[in-house]
Amino acid sequence: MAMKKAEMQAHNADYQARMSAAREAESNGLYRSAIAAAKSAWEHLDGMMQYESRYEHAESTSLAAVEMVLRCAPLR
Q1: Beta strands of 20-75 (E only): which ranges?
Q2: C-alpha to C-alpha distance for 48 and 52, rounded to whole angstroms
Q3: For the chain, which residues make up each domain, given as ranges?
Q4: For position 42, what pLDDT does the model report?
Q5: 3-state SS track over 6-62
Q6: Torsions phi, psi for 73 (to 5 deg)
Q7: In the predicted model, is pLDDT for residue 75 greater than 80?
Q8: Residue 61 pLDDT level (bands cut at 50, 70, 90)
C-alpha cells in the first residue's frame, strides 16, 4: 500500500526525533539508551526514505539508525 505524503512526513519526523535522542544518549555515554532509540527508529526507515527521496530529493546512502546500533552494540 502506498503511503500518502502526510504519512511519509510523519515517519520522517519520528525517525529524526528518535535519532536525535539516540545521538544525545550516545554523546552522554548512555549506549543502551542510544541503541534502544536507534532501534526504535527502524520502524520509520521506509517512510523516511520515501519522504526524503520524493520531497527533499535526497538519496540516503547510509542509514544512521542501523549504523549506530552496529557501532554501539557489544559484539558477542
Answers
A1: none
A2: 6
A3: 5-71
A4: 96
A5: HHHHHHHHHHHHHHHHHHHHHHCCCHHHHHHHHHHHHHHHHHHHHHHHHHCCCCCCC
A6: -70, 140
A7: no
A8: low
